[in-house]
Amino acid sequence: MTVTARTFALGSRIVNRMGYGAMQLAGKGVFGPPRDREETIAVLREAIARGVDHIDTSDFYGPHVANQIIREALHPYPSGLALVTKVGTRRGSDGAWIEASAPSELVAAVHENLRNLGVEQLHAVNFRAMFDTHGPAEGSIAPQVEALGRLKEQGYLRHVGISNVTPLQVAEARGVTDIACAQNQYNLAYRHDDALIDDLASDGIAYVPFFPLGGFSPLQSTVLSEVAATLGATPLQTALAWLMRRAPNILLIPGTSSRTHLRENLAAGDVDLDEAALLRLDSIARCLKRSGVAKGGAELRRRHSVREAGKRQ
Fold first, then answer.
1. According to the model, what pLDDT value does residue 303 have?
2. Domain extents for the chain?
3. What is the pLDDT of residue 189?
4. What's the whole-number average pLDDT of the chain?
5. Global pTM?
6. CATH second-level architecture of 8-309?
7. Catalytic residue positions?
8. Concatenated DSSP letters of the chain
Protein backbone atom coordinates (compact mmCIF):
# COMPACT_ATOMS: atom_id res chain seq x y z
CA MET A 1 0.00 0.00 0.00
CA THR A 2 1.34 3.41 -0.99
CA VAL A 3 1.47 5.98 1.82
CA THR A 4 0.37 9.47 0.72
CA ALA A 5 0.94 12.51 2.93
CA ARG A 6 -2.34 13.69 4.40
CA THR A 7 -1.28 17.24 5.31
CA PHE A 8 0.49 20.21 3.73
CA ALA A 9 1.19 23.82 4.59
CA LEU A 10 -1.35 26.44 3.59
CA GLY A 11 0.72 29.46 4.43
CA SER A 12 1.45 29.43 8.15
CA ARG A 13 -0.91 26.55 8.95
CA ILE A 14 -0.65 22.83 8.31
CA VAL A 15 -4.01 21.59 7.02
CA ASN A 16 -5.50 18.29 5.98
CA ARG A 17 -5.19 17.97 2.23
CA MET A 18 -8.83 16.98 1.87
CA GLY A 19 -10.75 20.20 2.43
CA TYR A 20 -14.20 21.44 1.47
CA GLY A 21 -15.37 23.84 -1.25
CA ALA A 22 -18.40 25.95 -0.37
CA MET A 23 -19.71 26.64 -3.88
CA GLN A 24 -22.55 24.13 -3.59
CA LEU A 25 -23.90 25.71 -0.42
CA ALA A 26 -25.72 28.22 -2.62
CA GLY A 27 -28.60 27.48 -4.96
CA LYS A 28 -28.64 26.37 -8.58
CA GLY A 29 -26.04 28.15 -10.63
CA VAL A 30 -24.31 29.20 -7.37
CA PHE A 31 -27.03 31.82 -7.01
CA GLY A 32 -29.65 32.35 -4.34
CA PRO A 33 -30.47 30.10 -1.39
CA PRO A 34 -29.98 26.32 -1.35
CA ARG A 35 -32.85 23.91 -1.79
CA ASP A 36 -32.29 22.49 1.71
CA ARG A 37 -30.56 24.92 4.08
CA GLU A 38 -30.68 22.54 7.03
CA GLU A 39 -28.84 19.88 5.01
CA THR A 40 -26.09 22.33 4.05
CA ILE A 41 -25.63 23.23 7.71
CA ALA A 42 -25.43 19.53 8.57
CA VAL A 43 -22.86 19.00 5.79
CA LEU A 44 -20.59 21.68 7.20
CA ARG A 45 -20.82 20.41 10.76
CA GLU A 46 -20.12 16.84 9.69
CA ALA A 47 -17.17 17.98 7.57
CA ILE A 48 -15.57 19.60 10.61
CA ALA A 49 -16.34 16.57 12.76
CA ARG A 50 -14.59 14.36 10.20
CA GLY A 51 -11.41 16.43 10.25
CA VAL A 52 -11.85 19.04 7.52
CA ASP A 53 -9.88 22.12 8.56
CA HIS A 54 -9.73 24.05 5.27
CA ILE A 55 -12.86 25.63 3.78
CA ASP A 56 -12.66 27.42 0.45
CA THR A 57 -15.45 29.95 -0.02
CA SER A 58 -16.35 33.35 -1.43
CA ASP A 59 -18.90 36.03 -0.83
CA PHE A 60 -19.87 35.85 -4.51
CA TYR A 61 -21.29 32.38 -3.91
CA GLY A 62 -24.96 33.26 -3.61
CA PRO A 63 -23.94 36.07 -3.34
CA HIS A 64 -23.37 36.13 0.43
CA VAL A 65 -25.33 32.89 0.89
CA ALA A 66 -22.42 30.47 1.31
CA ASN A 67 -20.60 32.63 3.84
CA GLN A 68 -23.74 33.26 5.84
CA ILE A 69 -24.47 29.52 6.01
CA ILE A 70 -20.88 28.82 7.07
CA ARG A 71 -21.24 31.37 9.86
CA GLU A 72 -24.57 29.94 10.99
CA ALA A 73 -23.24 26.39 10.99
CA LEU A 74 -19.78 26.85 12.49
CA HIS A 75 -19.41 30.16 14.34
CA PRO A 76 -17.63 30.41 16.73
CA TYR A 77 -15.11 28.63 14.54
CA PRO A 78 -12.74 25.86 15.64
CA SER A 79 -9.32 27.32 16.38
CA GLY A 80 -7.61 25.25 13.69
CA LEU A 81 -10.00 26.09 10.81
CA ALA A 82 -8.51 27.88 7.79
CA LEU A 83 -11.13 30.01 6.03
CA VAL A 84 -9.99 30.95 2.52
CA THR A 85 -11.97 33.26 0.24
CA LYS A 86 -11.78 34.63 -3.29
CA VAL A 87 -12.28 38.15 -4.64
CA GLY A 88 -12.25 39.69 -8.11
CA THR A 89 -15.81 38.90 -9.18
CA ARG A 90 -19.28 40.05 -8.25
CA ARG A 91 -22.74 38.80 -9.18
CA GLY A 92 -25.37 40.62 -11.16
CA SER A 93 -29.05 40.65 -10.24
CA ASP A 94 -29.55 37.92 -12.86
CA GLY A 95 -26.74 35.78 -11.46
CA ALA A 96 -24.17 36.88 -14.04
CA TRP A 97 -20.48 36.70 -13.10
CA ILE A 98 -19.03 40.21 -13.43
CA GLU A 99 -15.41 41.23 -13.12
CA ALA A 100 -14.75 43.36 -10.04
CA SER A 101 -10.97 43.59 -9.93
CA ALA A 102 -10.24 47.25 -9.26
CA PRO A 103 -8.19 47.56 -6.04
CA SER A 104 -11.03 49.45 -4.37
CA GLU A 105 -13.44 46.64 -5.30
CA LEU A 106 -11.09 44.06 -3.83
CA VAL A 107 -10.89 45.99 -0.56
CA ALA A 108 -14.69 46.18 -0.38
CA ALA A 109 -15.00 42.47 -1.19
CA VAL A 110 -12.56 41.45 1.54
CA HIS A 111 -14.58 43.44 4.08
CA GLU A 112 -17.80 41.80 2.84
CA ASN A 113 -16.23 38.39 3.38
CA LEU A 114 -15.09 39.37 6.86
CA ARG A 115 -18.54 40.68 7.75
CA ASN A 116 -20.56 37.74 6.42
CA LEU A 117 -18.20 35.15 7.92
CA GLY A 118 -18.11 37.02 11.22
CA VAL A 119 -14.32 37.14 11.56
CA GLU A 120 -11.74 39.87 12.00
CA GLN A 121 -9.08 38.14 9.91
CA LEU A 122 -9.18 35.66 7.01
CA HIS A 123 -6.57 32.95 6.74
CA ALA A 124 -6.07 33.65 3.03
CA VAL A 125 -7.69 35.60 0.21
CA ASN A 126 -7.25 34.62 -3.43
CA PHE A 127 -7.43 37.16 -6.23
CA ARG A 128 -9.30 35.52 -9.12
CA ALA A 129 -8.07 36.93 -12.43
CA MET A 130 -10.80 37.49 -15.00
CA PHE A 131 -8.98 38.45 -18.20
CA ASP A 132 -10.85 35.48 -19.70
CA THR A 133 -13.81 34.10 -17.80
CA HIS A 134 -13.22 30.62 -19.20
CA GLY A 135 -9.60 30.12 -18.19
CA PRO A 136 -6.26 31.77 -17.45
CA ALA A 137 -5.15 34.55 -19.81
CA GLU A 138 -2.17 36.86 -19.69
CA GLY A 139 -2.33 40.32 -18.16
CA SER A 140 -0.71 42.06 -15.22
CA ILE A 141 -2.16 41.26 -11.79
CA ALA A 142 0.37 43.32 -9.84
CA PRO A 143 -2.09 46.10 -8.80
CA GLN A 144 -4.53 43.55 -7.41
CA VAL A 145 -1.87 41.55 -5.57
CA GLU A 146 -0.47 44.80 -4.16
CA ALA A 147 -3.95 45.71 -2.86
CA LEU A 148 -4.26 42.36 -1.08
CA GLY A 149 -0.74 42.77 0.23
CA ARG A 150 -1.73 46.05 1.87
CA LEU A 151 -4.74 44.38 3.47
CA LYS A 152 -2.40 41.70 4.75
CA GLU A 153 -0.17 44.36 6.30
CA GLN A 154 -3.26 45.88 7.93
CA GLY A 155 -4.13 42.53 9.51
CA TYR A 156 -7.30 41.68 7.57
CA LEU A 157 -5.77 38.52 6.10
CA ARG A 158 -2.80 36.33 6.88
CA HIS A 159 -1.94 35.24 3.37
CA VAL A 160 -2.41 36.16 -0.28
CA GLY A 161 -3.33 33.65 -2.97
CA ILE A 162 -4.14 33.79 -6.68
CA SER A 163 -6.65 32.00 -8.88
CA ASN A 164 -7.26 31.40 -12.59
CA VAL A 165 -3.70 32.41 -13.43
CA THR A 166 -0.86 31.61 -15.82
CA PRO A 167 2.69 30.68 -14.75
CA LEU A 168 3.84 34.19 -15.73
CA GLN A 169 1.20 35.70 -13.45
CA VAL A 170 2.26 33.41 -10.63
CA ALA A 171 5.83 34.66 -11.03
CA GLU A 172 4.63 38.27 -11.14
CA ALA A 173 2.57 37.84 -7.98
CA ARG A 174 5.47 36.22 -6.15
CA GLY A 175 7.56 39.25 -7.03
CA VAL A 176 5.04 41.46 -5.23
CA THR A 177 4.41 39.48 -2.03
CA ASP A 178 4.61 35.97 -0.60
CA ILE A 179 1.99 33.72 -2.17
CA ALA A 180 0.46 30.95 -0.06
CA CYS A 181 -1.52 29.15 -2.76
CA ALA A 182 -2.55 29.09 -6.39
CA GLN A 183 -5.94 27.89 -7.63
CA ASN A 184 -6.58 26.68 -11.17
CA GLN A 185 -8.63 24.11 -12.99
CA TYR A 186 -6.72 20.83 -12.98
CA ASN A 187 -7.76 17.21 -13.11
CA LEU A 188 -7.04 13.89 -14.82
CA ALA A 189 -7.92 15.21 -18.25
CA TYR A 190 -6.95 18.85 -17.95
CA ARG A 191 -3.26 18.88 -17.02
CA HIS A 192 -1.93 22.16 -18.35
CA ASP A 193 -0.41 23.02 -14.94
CA ASP A 194 1.79 19.95 -14.51
CA ALA A 195 5.03 21.95 -14.54
CA LEU A 196 3.59 24.74 -12.39
CA ILE A 197 2.46 22.28 -9.71
CA ASP A 198 5.94 20.79 -9.49
CA ASP A 199 7.56 24.24 -9.30
CA LEU A 200 5.25 25.33 -6.50
CA ALA A 201 5.77 22.06 -4.63
CA SER A 202 9.52 22.61 -4.63
CA ASP A 203 8.94 25.97 -2.94
CA GLY A 204 6.38 24.72 -0.41
CA ILE A 205 3.43 26.53 -1.99
CA ALA A 206 0.00 24.90 -2.07
CA TYR A 207 -1.84 24.24 -5.32
CA VAL A 208 -5.63 24.01 -5.08
CA PRO A 209 -7.40 22.54 -8.14
CA PHE A 210 -10.97 23.51 -8.77
CA PHE A 211 -13.36 21.20 -10.57
CA PRO A 212 -11.14 18.35 -9.32
CA LEU A 213 -13.91 15.84 -9.98
CA GLY A 214 -14.52 16.82 -13.56
CA GLY A 215 -15.44 20.00 -15.33
CA PHE A 216 -15.93 18.47 -18.75
CA SER A 217 -17.11 15.19 -20.15
CA PRO A 218 -13.85 13.38 -21.13
CA LEU A 219 -13.21 12.70 -17.45
CA GLN A 220 -16.21 10.40 -17.50
CA SER A 221 -14.20 8.00 -19.62
CA THR A 222 -14.34 4.25 -19.80
CA VAL A 223 -10.81 4.07 -18.46
CA LEU A 224 -11.71 5.99 -15.29
CA SER A 225 -14.79 3.86 -14.68
CA GLU A 226 -12.89 0.62 -15.22
CA VAL A 227 -10.07 1.63 -12.88
CA ALA A 228 -12.57 2.71 -10.24
CA ALA A 229 -14.34 -0.64 -10.47
CA THR A 230 -11.10 -2.54 -9.87
CA LEU A 231 -10.47 -0.39 -6.78
CA GLY A 232 -13.96 -0.75 -5.36
CA ALA A 233 -14.39 3.04 -5.57
CA THR A 234 -16.50 5.48 -7.51
CA PRO A 235 -15.03 7.30 -10.51
CA LEU A 236 -15.14 10.54 -8.54
CA GLN A 237 -13.29 9.04 -5.58
CA THR A 238 -10.70 7.67 -7.98
CA ALA A 239 -10.18 11.07 -9.60
CA LEU A 240 -9.67 12.64 -6.16
CA ALA A 241 -7.30 9.87 -5.10
CA TRP A 242 -5.23 10.50 -8.24
CA LEU A 243 -4.95 14.18 -7.33
CA MET A 244 -3.78 13.23 -3.84
CA ARG A 245 -1.05 11.10 -5.40
CA ARG A 246 -0.13 13.60 -8.12
CA ALA A 247 1.82 15.98 -5.85
CA PRO A 248 2.15 16.55 -2.09
CA ASN A 249 1.20 20.23 -2.34
CA ILE A 250 -2.22 19.62 -3.89
CA LEU A 251 -5.04 20.58 -1.52
CA LEU A 252 -8.48 19.33 -2.51
CA ILE A 253 -11.73 21.25 -2.04
CA PRO A 254 -14.53 19.01 -3.36
CA GLY A 255 -17.89 20.58 -2.67
CA THR A 256 -21.33 19.15 -2.07
CA SER A 257 -24.62 19.99 -0.39
CA SER A 258 -25.22 16.33 0.56
CA ARG A 259 -23.85 14.46 3.56
CA THR A 260 -23.81 11.25 1.52
CA HIS A 261 -21.59 12.83 -1.11
CA LEU A 262 -19.44 14.44 1.57
CA ARG A 263 -18.67 11.04 3.04
CA GLU A 264 -17.85 9.67 -0.42
CA ASN A 265 -15.49 12.58 -1.10
CA LEU A 266 -13.67 12.25 2.20
CA ALA A 267 -13.30 8.50 1.73
CA ALA A 268 -11.28 9.18 -1.43
CA GLY A 269 -8.30 9.73 0.84
CA ASP A 270 -8.36 6.02 1.65
CA VAL A 271 -8.36 4.82 -1.97
CA ASP A 272 -5.01 3.18 -2.71
CA LEU A 273 -3.82 3.59 -6.29
CA ASP A 274 -1.26 0.99 -7.31
CA GLU A 275 1.14 1.56 -10.18
CA ALA A 276 -1.09 -0.25 -12.66
CA ALA A 277 -4.02 2.00 -11.78
CA LEU A 278 -1.85 5.11 -12.04
CA LEU A 279 -0.62 4.11 -15.48
CA ARG A 280 -4.15 3.62 -16.75
CA LEU A 281 -5.34 6.92 -15.27
CA ASP A 282 -2.41 8.78 -16.77
CA SER A 283 -3.39 7.36 -20.15
CA ILE A 284 -6.57 9.47 -20.05
CA ALA A 285 -4.62 12.66 -20.63
CA ARG A 286 -2.39 11.01 -23.24
CA CYS A 287 -5.39 9.80 -25.21
CA LEU A 288 -6.99 13.22 -25.05
CA LYS A 289 -3.84 14.87 -26.34
CA ARG A 290 -3.65 12.46 -29.25
CA SER A 291 -7.27 13.11 -30.15
CA GLY A 292 -6.85 16.87 -29.91
CA VAL A 293 -9.49 17.23 -27.21
CA ALA A 294 -7.06 18.65 -24.67
CA LYS A 295 -6.17 21.43 -27.08
CA GLY A 296 -9.81 22.42 -27.11
CA GLY A 297 -10.04 22.61 -23.34
CA ALA A 298 -10.96 26.29 -23.30
CA GLU A 299 -13.90 25.67 -25.61
CA LEU A 300 -15.02 22.70 -23.53
CA ARG A 301 -14.90 24.82 -20.39
CA ARG A 302 -16.88 27.52 -22.18
CA ARG A 303 -19.60 25.04 -23.05
CA HIS A 304 -19.76 23.47 -19.61
CA SER A 305 -18.99 26.32 -17.19
CA VAL A 306 -22.61 27.31 -16.58
CA ARG A 307 -23.87 23.75 -16.43
CA GLU A 308 -21.12 22.62 -14.08
CA ALA A 309 -21.82 25.48 -11.67
CA GLY A 310 -24.96 23.64 -10.69
CA LYS A 311 -23.20 20.32 -10.11
CA ARG A 312 -20.93 18.97 -7.43
CA GLN A 313 -17.30 20.05 -7.74
1. 37
2. 8-309
3. 87
4. 90
5. 0.91
6. Alpha-Beta Barrel (3.20)
7. 61
8. ------EEEETTEEEESB-EEGGGGS-GGGBS--S-HHHHHHHHHHHHHTT--EEE--TTTBTTHHHHHHHHHHPSPPTT-EEEEEESEEE-TTS-EEE--SHHHHHHHHHHHHHHHT-S-EEEEEEE--SSTTS------HHHHHHHHHHHHTTSEEEEEEES--HHHHHHHHHHS-EEEEEEE--SS--TTHHHHHHHHHTT-EEEEESTT-SSGGGS-HHHHHHHHHHTS-HHHHHHHHHHHH-TTB-B----S-HHHHHHHHHGGG----HHHHHHHHHHHHHHHHHTTGGGHHHHHHHHHHHHHTS--
